[in-house]
Amino acid sequence: MNSWSLSDIEVVSRAIVSAPSVHDTQPWDLRLDGTYAEITERRGFTDTPRADRVISCGAGVANVELALRALGRQIETDLLPDPRRPELVATVRSVGTTSPSSTDLRLFSAMARRRSHREAFADIPVPAATIADIVSAAETTGVRARLLAADEAPALADVLLYSADRVRHDPRHQRDLFPWTSHWLPRVGHESVDTIHTVVTRGVPDSARLAAAIEGETVLVFASGTQESIDLVRTGIAVERAWLTAVDARLGASILSYPLRVDDTAQRLARRLNLPGNPQLILRIGY
């Protein structure tokens, strides 16, 4: 017997649609049946890295969980529960009723206000207590959210420029669908848009200028313990919880993952930051 009302279905469906996804592809399917919600990965995408698609599905799981808790449901979540169905990302079961917490209700409200801020932030420091809350919200088994120290900005800048240089010189990477330099240096003019609206990297910005822009912002690096699908799903859950916590604190944010998918860029960043695990994405936060 189906326990989902039409309003429940609408709330949960809107929640997963509002989750961030690579190039807004929404690479998931949602099925509500009986007492559970089932999130599966849609296959067939060839122009986006699979890691980003699975991370996106994890963000969708986080929103489904939050929507169900906001509806007053007690839930249990199983990630990748069936080895015979590798496309099944998660099953979220309703196991009872409860009153939603004030935090759940605030974060659920934040879903509708979450946007990608792909320009420079205002020159206003984010309070340390707020950063701590965001990092705490990201605490998930197998995933670490690491605050970038000010003196590590040059290391991140060097690695990003290495990635951009590889894109510029390698025909396999000439079409970059994600204009990452616009996040920190929105008017440097190192990218242009061709006739089919694809961003092409034409050059790289100055290292010192990029490092100075990075140093002036709050930057979190998310790293997974492994490259296995389970840790990629957990990364998506962690980053969405962190992002919604930032929105609840009246902050903006944006994600960068594309540079870390180019050749050995992620490994280089791990070495430069002495970061255990596998860097998966960067979350910028600010006012």
TrEMBL record:
Pfam families: Nitroreductase (PF00881). Residues 112-287 form the Nitroreductase domain. One of its GO terms (molecular function) is oxidoreductase activity. InterPro entries: Nitroreductase, Nitroreductase-like. This is Nitroreductase family protein. It comes from Rhodococcus jostii.
